[in-house]
Every structure is written in structure tokens, then in C-alpha cells.
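Complex record, four chains
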Amino acid sequence: MSAITVLLVDDHLVVRSGLKALLGTQPDIEVVAEASSGEEALTAMKVHSPAVVVMDLAMGPGMDGIEAIRKLRERNRRQAVLVFTTYDSDADIVRAVDAGAMGYLLKDAAPEEIFAAVRGAVQGKSVMSAPVASRLFQQLRNPDEVLTPREAELLSLLTEGLSNRELGQRLFISEATVKTHLAHIYAKLGVETRAAAISTAIRREGMR
Amino acid sequence: MSAITVLLVDDHLVVRSGLKALLGTQPDIEVVAEASSGEEALTAMKVHSPAVVVMDLAMGPGMDGIEAIRKLRERNRRQAVLVFTTYDSDADIVRAVDAGAMGYLLKDAAPEEIFAAVRGAVQGKSVMSAPVASRLFQQLRNPDEVLTPREAELLSLLTEGLSNRELGQRLFISEATVKTHLAHIYAKLGVETRAAAISTAIRREGMR
DNA sequence: AGCGGGATCAGCCAAAAGGCTGAGAGACCA
DNA sequence: TGGTCTCTCAGCCTTTTGGCTGATCCCGCT
């Protein structure tokens, strides 16, 4: 039987090289192409039609990983896309799965985990790293932690370093209301201070 | 002439694997050991005495990269340490150089750049990626805005959302001293509040 | 009609943060 | 030796933030 063909997409040559070396040790897996951007990935896809695409989410300027996944899936739904990234950001996980990713692996995953994910992907199985899975479950169990649109808006401004007064002026609400929203946001994020809120917002929601 | 011996330190197996594959293509460079944490690096150092250490700064829990560099240099100043990391954070650059790093490369560096850095390091030459160098130059032009190593360290912890008290405990200094440092940091960053400091630090320094 | 969630606001109080001035110890350098 | 820089600390005062309770309004759903 023929080997599983794989396309690697990552803007870091070192990471591609490492993945290629790791996957190359498996006789039933073959890396047939590499790409360093979303655009390149789409081209390589047409040329090689790999069975599985292993892709980093963060890819410098240009098309980001999520968008690339969506476009790949639009063109050919048979291809399985595995996300392979450094951070287990809540927002990214949700967006990636929503865009059609079959699996979500972290870069510190064990080689066996990566091999299993690639093999599973071609069979339509979904594989994800333990930390990623636990985050998803936690979100499903605690819908209470989902921010309302207004709260999200406020949090977004908060990450720009505004004071309560400034937030109020920007959103045309009183400082008291700002404080109420903030209290709710802190509770949902599980933090006590605005500094921690900013920090976790940027880290876990990918806000910039 | 014998090959340049190298120790790789990175918590991601994939990255180590990739670096090893890349460096392995060069006849005059030999990867003699790998480590996935600062602690492991110190041990590997004693056993193998490599000429060059290539190390990631961000390494999960435990000893961070900066601390590892400092300890490595304490034990043997002949070893050249090259930082090999994803982000070109101002604060990290200052701290790494202060700790004794010989070079600072980004993970999207070209292979030739990496080879040149390794070869340069054993000859005492300092090599850094273009974005890193330009940051340093910019800082040299505006010395007033350059954070001291201690300030950079504090700012780094600040972005994690700690309070003044926590910062003091973490750094073994009084809260008064923390406030003094913060005042200086705010002045240098051109902000008035800690929230704004965190925000600009993360945006402009690529901190995570 | 009633109920719940979201958004809005107020007041009170304690804790945290920030602005200011001053100052000592140690390192480094001219 | 003197000057400069960095790191350290203290006290005082104002502003900001956070925790708490309670309240009104609107909207959508039952």
C-alpha cells in the first residue's frame, strides 16, 4: 500500500525540517511538499494533492493559518488538515475547528502523538493534544465563561491600556458601568486585576 | 580539523530535530547533545563540553533561558551561547546579551545565517538576525529609552499580570523598589499606567 | 403577564497603584 | 578621587481600581 502523502506548512524552516525528519522515520508517511505561507500552501495543494496537511497557525504577514485552512477546505474537502502550533489559545482552537481542522497538536507533542494524528486524519479521526482537548471540554462545560458582546468589546479596549474613565468615554457609558463590566470579565477570565485580564486576554484570545 | 561541537536546548522536540538536521548538513558542525530544559542543559554541558550552545529562550516551566545562559556562563566562560528564539523582544534581547549571549537568531532565519552564527560564535564573533540588530541600533540612538536589565526583567514579569507585591516577592525586592522601577519603565515606554505598559510591551516587544 | 439576561448606573469602602522627594550602597569609569 | 549609573528603599499624598450591594430599563422568550 502506498504511503500517506503530507504537505508541511510552517514559516519556520527549522520546524519544517524537524517535522520532515520525524515523519521521514515512518515508512508509511511521506512528506511530498513544503510551504512557508498560506499562499504557497494553496499552490502546493493543487500540484501535489497530499492526503494530509500539517500546518502552523501563526505565519507572519499575509494569510494566517485559519484563513488558509478555510480556503483549503473550500477547494477540496477530502484533504485532512492538522493544526500544529505552539500555543493552546482558546480562540484559535475554536476558530481552527470551525474552519475545518481535523486535529490540533502542540509543538511539544511526542513523535508518536504526531504520527498517530497523521494516520488518524486520513481515516477521518480527530486527534488533539491533551491540553487542547481539556480546554475544549472546559468550554463546553462552562458556558458561563463566555463573554457577552459588550464585555468582549470592553476587553478589547482594555488590552490597549485604557483607564476606566477612558473606557467609559470611548463606549459612551459611565465609569460605574465600566466597573460592572470589568467585574464580570474578571470573574469569567478567572483573574482579579486588570493587568492579569489584559495578560490572559492577549495570550488566550490571541488579541493584539 | 575537528568539527564544532554543539549542544541544542529547546523544549520542542521538533525544533531540536530540525536544527539537528540542518546543522548535520555541514561537515564542520556536529550536534553532540540535546536538552529540553535549562536543567538538562547544565548537565549535558558538564558531560559534553560543547563549543557552542544553541538555546531557545522560552522553555516552559522551570528555569528560563536567560537564567540558563547565566548559569552556563558562570561555569565555563569559554562556551559560546547563541539564542535561537521566535520573538524579537526588546527586553529579552537586552537580558540575553547581558547574561552573556554571543548571538541572537530568530527561528525564521535562513540556514546560512544559522551556520554563520555557529561558526562565528567559536571565534568570538557576535552574530544576530537583521530585525534584532536593527532593534539594538534603534536603542543605541535613543539611550534614554533603553531599559536596564533589571527593568526589562520586571517588565517581563509585569506582562504576566502580577501585582507590585507579587513582583517584589518574585524578585526578592521591596514593593517600594518595584514602584521605583515601574516609574522608570513607564517613563521610558512613554505610558502612565501599568495597563498601558503591558499593552505596549506585548505589542512592541512581541512578548507572550 | 412574568421571567431572565444584558446593559446601564450609584454609593461606599478598602486596597492597589502612581507621583514625588530624598537617600544610601555598589559598580564602573575618567 | 569624583562623577555617573543602577539598584535598592522609605514616606507621603492623590488617584485609580476592585468588591459589594442594590437598582432601573429593555428585550426576548414562555
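Note: Residues 163-165, 179, 182-183, 186, 192-194 of chain A lie near DNA strand D (CB under 10 Å from a C1').
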